[in-house]
Design goal:
This protein is α/β, with parallel strands linked by helices. The chain folds into two domains: 183 residues, Rossmann fold (3-Layer(aba) Sandwich); 181 residues, Glycogen Phosphorylase B (Rossmann fold, 3-Layer(aba) Sandwich). It has 14 helices and 13 strands. A seven-stranded parallel β-sheet has the order 3-2-1-4-5-6-7. Strand 9, helix 8 and strand 10 form a beta-alpha-beta unit.
């Protein structure tokens, strides 16, 4: 099967969308599919992405992002049998080939703070008009499917649930020398080490984690917290100074996957305090690496972690500090979590996930025949 994937919304740095596309391409090729990328021609907006492993076919679209999403993506290469749009921006028309859209989350519908501006409201109005034209829709969790049922009930009959996958790098062992080199490069000097990977907007709930860590640090004076993903280091650092935590917390922006895998391996426990997610990829990555996971007890993350980590009330400072200390103070608990979690994480291997996508693609093709 010849599949085109719209890569126009990928960024110059590694984001969740880019991680998803790269993993999907890897998985599809492992199961025998032919995959190309399509994107806008404007190189400043769509640089070539060799790390995605795609042949990028660019099509004329000298205007802005919205033009591509409304019209440009309709120009599917002739040899392509199906177009996969890995985000919600489907054109407001039926395409010449079957189309599959991935819905990662419905945060703007669930949380009003994410649709305040006129531009944002216009964009989501476009989604509401255009999404029905997709032949099939993939929700990345049952929690996202439940949101689809609430906000797009007329589309659930053509929506299926396929979880995100974890890149094979997270399943690989790393040698101790590489881990020591990474620790030196990032200035990691303390143990035990608590790791957070993700964003820093309000729903990520990092403030609750920082408050909980004050208690943890009072009892584990040599511990450190590593925060990965902070775009605005200055504001985060100011918050740490205000809390008196700046000497025991290391903050870094987005890092390469190579470094991220090493940071997971160097951690004694991984924490994920988010209040709302469509899936929750970092906990799945941590399980694959073999790090004990403590995460918010919310529907999507509960799906990912299940019984292989500790789930806590996202807004309970006491629950967070108690759970972190439980793992740090009980090596046998940590060992059991790691052993069982790594076996379970194989369910998130991309070739396994890609086979489910192929079933959806074939179903979309049959729907056009």
């Amino acid at each position: 099967m010849n599949i085109a994937i719209d890569v126009s919304n990928t960024a110059g740095f590694r984001t969740g969308t880019e991680e998803y596309i790269e993993g999907l391409v890897y998985g599809l090729r492992r199961v025998g599919a032919q995959v190309v990328g399509v994107g806008r021609q404007t190189s400043a907006l769509v640089p070539d992405k060799p790390h995605l492993g795609l042949e990028l076919r660019r099509h004329p679209s000298p205007l802005a992002k919205w033009w591509w999403e409304y019209y440009g993506v309709r120009r599917v290469p002739r040899d392509v049998e199906l177009l996969h749009i890995p985000f919600m921006a489907h054109p407001p028309a039926r395409l010449s080939v079957p189309s599959v859209v991935t819905v990662h989350d419905l945060i703007p519908y669930r949380l009003a703070a994410y649709r305040k501006s006129v531009k944002e409201r216009h964009y989501f109005s476009h989604i509401e008009r255009s999404l029905p034209y997709a032949d099939r829709i993939v929700a990345i969790s049952h929690a996202t499917f439940d949101d689809m049922r609430e906000f797009f009930p007329h589309l659930t009959s053509k929506t299926v649930v396929i979880p995100n996958g974890v890149h094979p790098d997270f399943f690989e062992e790393l040698d101790s020398q590489h881990l020591m080199q990474t620790a030196r490069r990032f200035g990691l000097r303390r143990h035990p080490r608590v790791l957070y990977v993700g964003g820093f907007d309000e729903r990520k709930n990092v403030g609750t984690l920082l408050t909980a860590m004050k208690t943890v640090f009072s009892r584990h004076r040599d511990a450190e917290l590593v925060l990965v993903g902070a775009k605005d280091n200055l504001s985060v650092r100011r918050a740490l100074v205000d809390l008196g935590l700046d000497s025991q917390v290391l903050v870094t922006p987005f890092v390469s996957r190579h470094d991220l895998v090493a940071l997971y391996h160097s951690a004694d426990v991984f924490v994920y305090p988010s209040r709302y997610e469509g899936f929750g990829l970092p906990p799945a990555q941590a399980l694959a690496v073999g790090v004990p996971v403590i995460a918010s007890d919310i529907p999507s993350v509960r799906e990912v972690v299940q019984d292989y980590g500790i789930l806590v009330d996202p807004d309970s400072v006491e629950a967070w500090s108690a759970a972190i200390e439980q793992v740090l103070d009980a090596p046998e608990t940590a060992h059991r979590m790691v052993t069982e979690g790594q076996v379970y994480a194989e369910e998130f291997s991309w070739p396994r996930i890609a086979r489910s996508y192929l079933n959806v693609y074939h179903d979309a093709l049959r729907g056009r025949s």
